[in-house]
Amino acid sequence: MNSPILVTGGAGFVGSHLVARLLESGARVRCLVRRSSSLGRLPGGQVELAYGDLAAGDGIRQALDGVDTVFHVAGTTKALSSAEYYRGNLEATRKLLRACEERGAPLPRLIHVSSLAAAGPSPDARGLSEDAEPRPLSHYGKSKLAAECAVRDSALGSSAVIVRPPVVYGPGDTDVLEVFRSVSRGLMLRIGRGESLFSFIYASDLAEALLAAALCPGAAGETFFAASAEPVSWLQFGAQAAAAMNRRFRTIAAPAALAFAAAWGAEIVSKWRGTPGILSRDKVREARCRYWVCQTSRARERLSFTARTSLQDGIRNTLSWYRNAGWLTF
Length: 330
What we know:
Structural class: alpha/beta
Number of helices: 11
Strand content: 15-25%
CATH superfamily of one domain: NAD(P)-binding Rossmann-like Domain
Radius of gyration: 19 Å
CATH architecture of one domain: 3-Layer(aba) Sandwich
Number of strands: 14
Shape: globular
Helix content: 40-55%
CATH topology of one domain: Rossmann fold
């Protein structure tokens, strides 16, 4: 990897961990960022900045100059409307693909970061394989699946690699942070009475998986789940967090009807504020599913990737970062 590597979304949570791993490997890294982006997560002076906007199609061709590998991490995970998900995930991906195709040969190698949400929940604890028919539930998941299809149908499709992470947590994350905050206050909310299982991955492990996907010639044209080998329940996750914070907590089961009502109210507040929140009716639909579990054998066998960070170590490292950053006190 002597040519610059382009990372979209490098200033975000997952992207910043990937950028750190690429720099550690000695790569030249270029990040496509908006001029309005906060660059606090990027190491100053070590990364080339290319200013542009994927959704608007601005600055992409210039950012691709001399690049032979692209990590497409940017995406919309929270939105005020369904249209925003498709604009941030599908249309932005289409514009990136078009710019790559218009640049001409040689086409860059694309590592496209999707989501388990694009595949949907699993019917049981055995988890989904990459070959399972996708059944996304949310607009987020549907828009990510549509972006995957755009990648496969493009001129880059035969060489591109699609990576689907499940729940991603780690230093700098703002979504799972809300779970930690709740546990620190002694409570954990779940929808319905049944315990659910989910796959997860620590952010630096995901960065390792993305790098493995880029370096493996045999991964071309393939789709991979990237996750820790064993799923956990939210009760187990909360218990690990509580132990690390020396807290006791209890779980509260909320009826689905009440959760939907609360989500509807949260959506109204979010639209009034003009800022999307973490709670929505789509999120409730996903949370009602008992199994969000994926298999990891393909990544292990073909990419030689195994997530190394234990849940205990990952939670401890994440909580330490939150406390040092002033995001959480315990």
